[in-house]
Amino acid sequence: MNNQVLIYQVRAFADRGFGGSPTGVVLNAGGLNEVQMQAIAKKLPVSHTAFVMEVVDQDHDINIRFFTPNGEIRNCGHATIAAHFLLATEKGTSQGYMSKQKTQSGVQEVQIYREEGILNVTFEQSEVLLSGIEKDVVQELLMLFNLSSSDLPEHYPIMLASPGANRFLIPLKSQETLAKLKPGFPAMRSLCERTDSIGCFAFTLSGAEDRWEAQGRMFAPMIGVDEDIINGNSSGCLGAYLIHLSNTGFDHTGLTLTVYQGHGFGTPGKVVVKAQKSSEKIRTFVGGTAIIASQTRMEINQYQKDPHDKDDAV
User: Do 135 and 268 share a domain, yes or no?
Assistant: First the structure.
């Protein structure tokens, strides 16, 4: 027995109506099993796909599962933005509202609101945990990126950040160096396997105190994405990183960080991060808007005889 699944492509973290990260979104996905979800994600020409199931529960109203072509992941920033933007658009909402989504990382609050007539989505990340790394790991990172210590800015160390999955934060002095990065992926995969990490987020910074801008590139070979076009969770990690390194409190207003990504793909995007420190905990909020680019239907088998034969699911 076959049926059709409606699949949207939503460009998350678009900037002024252009660009953004192409993301698959399937609404009303409760009838799909894991094999079918994986098969859909594998066939779509995007890095991530969100499968949305609306539920009635005391602590959340939406379940979302995230898949890359290589498998299921715990959470995804740009797919969260894409899914809630699509839901709000489909509902035709003109007023803001709050939703709670349940993912493998837990329950997250998501705010949907309009700013100057533009629909925006913001979610609070799981707490970002930051830790220093050993000198030999720093040298290994420099080697796989073909960098030297002179490419790194003073006072901004390479660190490991995790909102649920580890990634290396790698600051650079110049945008030119950032644009030319060509990492050795076999070496990166080896390092990530040993450090239980998904990849590396390289970035440049400008700004001070409570307002910053960054350019970034996310390399995530461990989830099957050599380079992610726009990565929301790593942008949020960068906000936590700045609070962590700051000597001032930011207890009340915090800082705002705008992270630009995707230029190398010709699909520029913008992530807006707000971060603050409260009761010794750093809270980070990741937001942006999106564009609904297209929709298509895919025939998919309702029943799967061999759960290991994923290619036969669609």
Answer: yes
Residue-level pLDDT at 16: 86
Q: For tokens 């409606």, name the residue.
A: 6
Contacts of 15-19 with C-beta under 8 Å, sequence gap 24+, read 15/260, 15/268, 15/269, 15/270, 17/291, 18/268, 19/262, 19/266, 19/267, 19/268, 19/269
- The answer to whether the CB of 220 falls within 8 A of the CB of 206 is no
Q: How many CA atoms lie within 13 A of 61 on its CB side?
A: 8
Domain residues for 304? Answer: 2-124+291-313
User: Is 70 exceeded by the pLDDT of residue 303?
Assistant: no
- Asked whether residue 168 falls in the same domain as residue 77, the answer is no
Give the tokens for residue 233.
């969770």
Are 222 and 252 in the same domain? yes
Number of domains comprising the chain: 2
Residues 41 and 144 in one domain: no
Task: Give the pLDDT mean for 1-18.
Answer: 89
Distance of alpha carbon 61 from alpha carbon 99, whole angstroms: 7
Q: Do 262 and 268 contact (CB within 8 A), yes or no?
A: yes
